[in-house]
Amino acid sequence: MFGWLKKKRRERALSAYAIPDDEWQRALHELPFLDHYDPKLIARLRELSTLFLVEKSITSGAEEGEYALEVTPQMRIVIAIQACVLLLGKGGTVADAIEDFANFENVVVYPGDFPQSYDYEDEYGIVHKLDEPIAGESWEGGPVLLSWPVVEAGYIESGMSLVVHEFAHKLDMLNGDIDGIPPLPREQIEPFRSAITEAYEDFCIHVDANEATAIDPYAAEAIDEFFAVTCEVFFEEPELLQFEYPDYFQQLRAFFRVDPIAGTACAA
Ligand SMILES: [Zn+2]
Questions:
Q1: Are 27 and 33 in contact (CB under 8 A)?
Q2: Ion ligand 1 — residues with CB < 5 Å
Q3: Which of 30, 243, 36, 258 shows the shortest CA–CA distance to 156?
Q4: What's the pTM?
Q5: Contact between residue 111 and residue 83 where contact means Cβ atoms under 8 Å apart
Q6: Residue 196 burial class via C-beta count within 10 angstroms: exposed 0-12, middle 13-18, buried 19 and up
Q7: Which residues belong to CATH 3.40.390.10 in the chain?
Q8: pLDDT more than 90, % of the chain
Q9: 60-110 pLDDT, tens digit each
Q10: Which of the residues 108, 199, 225, 244 could staple to 221 if both were Cys, CB 3.0 to 4.6 A apart?
């Protein structure tokens, strides 16, 4: 729940910190998957992105050294747009919609892959320290970490968006479980669960058989990764997802309340 004051503050921020026209157009130009969207939705996306930029800090992984890079206003806008596209069809005002991203403040950008350090306990209870380079990570209740070259590669590599991927994990985490099922109205939960499970199991069969797949095989890693990867495909290459998994595509469409093929809002 959020208060009346917070809502007022957000409404004021929309005009006080509106993204300048030229910067907005330049950023949109980098994201051709939005070209065919209804201008009304694009205007809403601009407002959501404005609030995102006001409320989040988007900074370099380090001040100096190998993990430092200069984060430009343009980079911040491009990140904000791709994060906010996930909230585009949410009901209520934009001040209500951005509330889905309220439980974290920081986005950290790296000049390349960065080390992910975590402890891993094996079957004998022995804890190992792992240190693997990765391109993106989303911490529960914490920051989103992004490798900038991979964000940029998404501009040209159709069907991919590291930003959409990591912020899709954020939506999945909102209801406490990281299980590929984002918060949904009660009557949508079971249809969503059965559609994603069926699609995921089918996808794993193809990947396990070493078949070439049109969707990134990383999606077979776990069902929460399948959700994040297919959110990328939903926005960036929707016809592909609709063709491969039509039932699941419908469920995502009902969840996001956006028809990415038509570029319009749609009812749940
Ligand atoms: Zn992931």
A1: no
A2: 225, 228
A3: 30
A4: 0.93
A5: no
A6: buried
A7: 177-268
A8: 76
A9: 998 888 889 999 999 999 999 999 999 999 988 999 999 999 999 999 999
A10: 225
Q: Which string of b and e fits 117-129 if b means at least 16 CB within 10 Å?
A: eeeeeeeeeeeee
**Sequential DSSP letters for 186-211:** HHHHHHHHHHHHHHHHHHHHHHHTT-
Task: Kindly indicate the confidence band of residue 234, based on its pLDDT and cuts at 50, 70 and 90.
Answer: very high
What's the CA-to-centroid distance between 225 and ligand 1, angstroms? Answer: 5
| CA neighbor of 138 nearest in space, from 111, 166, 171 | 166
Q: How far is the CA of 102 from the centre of ligand 1 (A)?
A: 20
User: 255 C-alpha to center of ligand 1: Å?
Assistant: 19
Distance CA 249, CA 196 (A): 9
Fold assignment, 177-268: Collagenase (Catalytic Domain) (3.40.390)
Tell me the C-alpha distance between 14 and 10, whole Å: 6
Question: How far away, in angstroms, is 112 Cα from ligand 1 center?
Answer: 17
